[in-house]
């Protein structure tokens, strides 16, 4: 039987940040985006450009492309 892993501290903290800052909804304004990224960077100990592009830049670009 596979072992169930308990959530890591980083994962738990990141989920709390998401709920507190933007309630698990997409970030819509620059101020919220900056606060969200700063808090996640503190938890992770480094700024991850690949994650920033994947979760923020790419969805915003797709949304703009649909509108035009």
Structural commentary:
By secondary structure, this protein is mainly α. The protein has one domain. Helices cover 71% and strands 0% of the residues. The chain has three helices and no strands. The protein has helices spanning 9-22, 30-44, 49-67. Helix 1 (9-22) packs antiparallel against helix 2. The longest helix is centred in the last third of the chain and has 19 residues, at 49-67. It is globular and about 50 Å long. The protein starts with 8 loop residues before the first helix and ends with a helix.
Ranges where pLDDT stays below 50 over 5 or more residues in a row are none
Overall geometry comes to globular
Give the number of domains.
1
First-to-last CA distance: 51 Å
Strand content range? under 5%
Give the structural class: mainly alpha
SSE ordering:
HHH
Strand element count: 0
Mean pLDDT across every amino acid position: 85
| Helical fraction | over 70%
Largest sheet: none
* Rg over alpha carbons: 14 Å
DSSP helical segment count: 3
Features:
3 helices, mainly alpha, 68 residues, 71% helix, 0% strand
Write a compact overview of the structure shown.
This protein is mostly helical. Helix content is 71%, strand content 0%.
